[in-house]
Amino acid sequence: xxxxxxxxxxxxxxxxxxxxxxxxxxxxxxxxxxxxxxxxxxxxxxxxxxxxxxxxxxxxxxxxxxxxxxxxxxxxxxxxxxxxxxxxxxxxxxxxxxxxxxxxxxxxxxxxxxxxxxxxxxxxxxxxxxxxxxxxxxxxxxxx
Length: 144
Hints:
Helix content is 31%, strand content 18%. It has helices at residues 11-19, 35-38, 50-58, 86-98, 109-118; strands at residues 25-29, 42-45, 71-74, 104-107, 121-125, 134-137. Strands 2-5-1-6-3-4 form a six-stranded mixed β-sheet. The chain is globular. The two termini are 27 Å apart. The mean pLDDT is 96.
């Protein structure tokens, strides 16, 4: 344990985030997502929900500002369904961490899987909220 690092951030997850470069993508996958089948690199965060993990990650991971698709979410399969409730938490956590509004780009389920296969890493969480899958594109940390 270290000071000011949330215990949900494992040494493996911190290492992955530090190794990522500008433009690399990190997938935070819910408990139903086929993470092992799609990951180039996998980080297990079983038992940790995204309400806990996302804000902890965003304390360290800057979101890219140079692209239109900065954060992506999996669009519900049923076009008549309402927006997943967890997306409001995603927006709130992103706003708090970035100090600006960050748009969520919705992409179709199989397009999301394809994108996840290309991501730097997938974090397999214990989140059981439907459609609580999110892709974060890493930005840069400006010079002091």
